Amino acid sequence: MTPTIDTLPQTADIAPLPTIDGGFQTVLADPPWRFANRTGKVAPEHRRLDRYGTMDLEEIKALPVGDVTAKNAHLYLWVPNALLLEGIDVLQAWGFRYVSNVIWAKRRKDGGPDGRGVGFYFRNVTEPILFGVKGSMRTLAPARSTVNMIETRKREHSRKPDEQYDLIESCSPGPYLEMFARYARPGWTAWGNESDAEVEPKGRSHRGYAGGAIETFPSLEPNERLSPWLSDRLARILVEEYEAGASIDQLANESGYSIQRVRSLLEAGGVTLRGRGRPKKATAESAPVKKVAVKKQPAKKAAPRKATTKRSN
Ligand SMILES: C[S@@+](CC[C@H](N)C(=O)[O-])C[C@H]1O[C@@H](n2cnc3c(N)ncnc32)[C@H](O)[C@@H]1O
């Protein structure tokens, strides 16, 4: 058989992993998994889609993650549903033991499941992040009230939700390393062949870029305590609508939350509350131009460092 691009062996061009004094305490990794059926349309490197180069299982396992992490560390590892066993294999090869997972539930704008996913047996609307521990280290206190699910809308091909960072930063300590990063996160060390600011990630030029938070409110018990992550997310949605002219009463009606809950979420979102009275209409004159500062976790992170490799694909 004449070799074609799909049958030629590929070896990834792999740059050294970054290091930091004492080692990274938390690693987030979203590897370019190579699927067995590389001619299938779902394979990331499919020629027609030209997304990004992939690595085989042995190459991923051989990455010296154990050497650049602290004695006690957390790992968040994205893995496609079909490659769950390979994911656990990688997690263990990097020196971690599997303890739990966080599920990303992909939602439509109205909050329903986003059934545009692919899948041979089922249409996938979820994607797991395997959570592993090296040595011994509990999650930070807010994790105990953080649910292991992220519900947001999809963005461009293989792009993961930014809400992952809020969840990780509130549940696991820095210094933080993101492997196979495409968009550097402030306070994190990014490594990956598309992580340079001047590199335009390939996925972005393809159709389907949308994303953003889902625009419905989860139902809450009257005195339910919110995790920092959920409170931050709800605050962002409420602030956006408040700044567009909605009143606190309207927001309470729409969300089903008490006036008091809406007020405190708006305050947590950093917005200056308007005086009582008729709700302002969002007009060019009335809509504030100020961008809302969303409250973040206290800065306890390593200075951003970046290691990049030359683009191999
Ligand atoms: C699944 S994507 C990561 C998506 C990213 N987490 C996001 O949310 O946008 C995998 C990334 O690994 C990169 N990659 C592929 N081969 C690589 C290699 N040999 N070394 C470093 N990065 C590589 C790809 O270019 C791609 O950016």
UniProtKB/TrEMBL annotation:
UniProt keywords, alphabetically: Methyltransferase, S-adenosyl-L-methionine, Transferase
Positions with biased composition (Basic residues): 292-313
InterPro entries: HTH_58_Actinobacteria-type, MT-A70-like, SAM-dependent_MTases_sf
Presence of the UniProt keyword Calcium in the record: no
Transmembrane segments: none
GO MF annotation, one: methyltransferase activity
Keyword S-adenosyl-L-methionine: yes
Superkingdom, taxonomy of origin: Bacteria
Domain Helix-turn-helix: start-end pairs: 232-280
PROSITE patterns for the chain: MT_A70
Renumbered residue ranges of the record's region Disordered: 273-313
GO BP annotations listed: methylation
Similarity field: Belongs to the MT-A70-like family.
Protein name in UniProt: N6-adenosine-specific RNA methylase IME4
